[in-house]
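Figure 6 in text form: structure in, sequence out.
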């Protein structure tokens, strides 16, 4: 009777834990309890977008203060390539969030380039907006004197050959950034929102990356948690640890029965506790999700696998020159996939900063690879960092809830 009450209590407690998991882990895309209708709700990124839009509106009305010093020594070149999109032009909020909140000395250490990635730049709605030239250091367009290059670009535009044109644009933008003389090159896509304080965090992270490795490819500013689950490559390890946990519980109960409690631990109790209750707890642990159970600590980490996508990379100037050469050699493909292939071949370290400094907000891909069935989220929608939405909104220095600050 006592054993029956004990296992009834365990069952009720287990049901309570399940409800707690449903309430707690709904933002974890690796969890059984993931709830897309709540998890994709934008909180902090909407706050930042409002700040960015207000900043751009001030720039358009010529009330924003331009604090750049001529002929200054720059530390980081920030490159953003943008094309006209159907509907909302994300680049406005993207660039506004990258500029809003920068201290005067921080802005002076950044050289920013916006590439209008059209053979006819007039096609882009932002081309004549005042903020574009007021807030950027250079508005980059294609070299119209190179007739052969322009012919290729126009062919790619007509045929929508995104895999060739996107590669060219990326290399073209990186090369232009190298011309600025900056020590670091950051290439950010035009459909992101940046956390306030992104620049100082990036510079600190680069110093950490330099101290950890002398042979590294990039620092990633964005990642999505959906690829960080209980990946099949590690299931043998998970299975071994789970079996060891079950055996450990059974062994402890057997030892307790033999030493002091022969009447309390019958064979049935030991069997049920070890092979029913313990496996149920292990199952709940895995159902809760890897991101929740084994979260990445704030800081700079190696991420050789499961990083996605190309929303934001930072390269050293030396590496950036090699990136240009590599993309020119390949000519066709997707930038992030080519970088990963290169890193794997040459065993280059890849770093990521946690928590993510960028959020992807584009609802439709600009690369032509965005296919979705009716009433489901697009591939672009799913490129989302759920932890980003948990940044605090109060104060000039936004602190992620999981950080020590």
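Output sequence:
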């Amino acid at each position: 009777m006592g054993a029956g009450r004990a296992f009834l209590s365990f069952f009720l407690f287990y049901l309570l834990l399940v409800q707690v998991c449903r309430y707690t882990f709904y933002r974890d895309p690796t969890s059984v309890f993931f709830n897309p209708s709540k998890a994709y709700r934008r909180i902090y990124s909407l706050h930042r977008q409002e700040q960015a839009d207000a900043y751009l509106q001030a720039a358009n009305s010529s009330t924003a203060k331009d604090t750049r010093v001529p002929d200054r020594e720059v530390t980081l070149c920030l490159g953003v390539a943008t094309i006209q999109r159907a509907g909302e032009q994300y680049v406005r909020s993207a660039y506004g969030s990258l500029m809003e909140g920068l201290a005067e000395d921080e802005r002076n250490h950044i050289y920013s380039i916006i590439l209008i990635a059209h053979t006819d730049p007039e096609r882009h709605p932002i081309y004549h907006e005042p903020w574009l030239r007021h807030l950027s250091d250079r508005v980059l367009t294609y070299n119209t004197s190179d007739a052969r290059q322009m012919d290729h670009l126009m062919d790619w535009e007509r045929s929508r050959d995104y895999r060739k044109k996107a590669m060219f644009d990326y290399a073209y933008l990186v090369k232009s950034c190298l011309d600025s003389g900056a020590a670091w090159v950051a290439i950010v896509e035009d459909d992101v929102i940046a956390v306030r304080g992104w620049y100082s965090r990036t510079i600190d992270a680069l110093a950490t990356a330099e101290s950890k490795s002398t042979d590294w490819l990039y620092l990633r500013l964005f990642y999505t948690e959906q690829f960080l689950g209980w990946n099949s490559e590690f299931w043998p390890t998970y299975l071994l640890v789970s079996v060891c946990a079950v055996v450990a519980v059974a062994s402890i109960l057997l030892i307790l029965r033999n030493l002091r409690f022969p009447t309390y631990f019958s064979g049935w109790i030991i069997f049920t506790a070890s092979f029913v209750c313990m496996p149920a707890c292990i199952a709940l642990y895995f159902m809760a999700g890897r991101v929740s159970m084994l979260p990445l600590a704030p800081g700079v980490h190696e991420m050789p696998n499961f990083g996605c996508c190309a929303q934001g990379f930072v390269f050293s100037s030396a590496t950036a020159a090699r990136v240009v050469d590599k993309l020119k050699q390949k000519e066709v493909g997707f930038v992030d996939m080519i970088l990963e292939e290169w890193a794997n071949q040459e065993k280059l370290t890849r770093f990521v900063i946690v928590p993510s400094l960028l959020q992807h907000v584009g609802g439709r891909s600009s690369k032509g690879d965005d296919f979705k069935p009716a009433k489901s989220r697009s591939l672009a929608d799913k490129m989302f960092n759920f932890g980003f939405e948990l940044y605090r909104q109060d104060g000039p220095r936004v602190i992620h809830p999981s950080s020590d600050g």
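Caption detail: Residues 368-374, 395-405 have pLDDT under 50 and may be disordered.
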